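Lab channel / #folding
Pinned by the channel admin:
"Please post every new chain as: sequence first, then the structure tokens as a reply. Keep commentary short and put observations after the output so the thread stays searchable."

First post following the new format, from NK:
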Amino acid sequence: MRSSDGKNTRLLTANDKVLPGRQLAANLVAVAVARGAPEHKLLRGTGIFTDDLVGDSTLSCRQIQKLAANAIQYAKGYDVAFRFGQQLITGSMNDALPYFMHARHFGQCLRALPVFQPLVSPFVSAQRFEDDDCYYYLLQDAMGCGKLFVFMVEAYCAALVALAKMCTGKRLPFHFDFPFGRPRHIQEYEENLGFRLRFNQPVFAIRIEKQAMSVPCLQPNLTLQAYARHRLNRQMHYRRGLLDSVRALLHRNSSLTLPEAAARLNMSAASLKRKLSEHQTSFSDLHDNIRRQQAIFYLQVQKLNNEQSAVKMAFSDITNFRRAVKRWTGLTPSELRQV
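Reply from TO:
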């Protein structure tokens, strides 16, 4: 379906077979095989066949998730996700790379990631916040990855580092936050992401100084970039993912109800509820996660006091605000400011 302006309006879900197999699956298989995983075991139970790794075969997010689960089980070492992310940028054909490589500066690359997310990063999305000096990207599960989300985040972060290096020739100063303890295989994180790492944080997050956005790309070319964008737009069967579409509605109106959101997405309330369940989430979970992001940014990042944060989040009662923050984050506002 296309809107009156010619743009795709369908919403990508985990079972839609639209992802290029030669890009996602082939790269993941190559990395896992290099780490000792037998190819036939990697493909077991995925519905993916060897022929799907070449040519124009398309696969679903759910199939790639099953492939990732097999890679975790059969590949040796702790760097499979990181290598997968790097391989997406530096390895075999990725139709999106020409657009990024011919950008004027890295800020243009980052702004384009959400635009081409169904093709570039279907599993991980980011909600951007900013202050005077930095941009903050709070990472979100875009496809109901569940326990595989850590793997997908590691791949996303490694791909971002590799993309910056390929486009600008520099390793830009990304800061990475992870909501779990310092891993025993910390050297894999440091080797692939650098040393600006924090663990035991409330959410997965990436921070980068605004001045880094103006770092020029090595091969800026408006003509080639426009051609690459034209090619990508022709491949964009879907505007964005279902989960991120619901999130976008909730960001615009935090009091939106499920039936109201369903109507704006041109589906019934029952259909939206079922589709969200298929992605291992619910409307209330998405709503709470958005409010959690806002609380973390205002309290932990900006260090606002309770009254200031409550006003920004439309709370009229400070006691209710404290209770909500504790429910969303497991921490009181004071504890969150100290993280």
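NK: Strands lie at 11-12, 19-20, 58-59, 124-130, 134-141, 175-177, 197-198, 205-209, 240-241.
TO: also worth noting, Confidence is low (pLDDT under 50) at residues 1-8.
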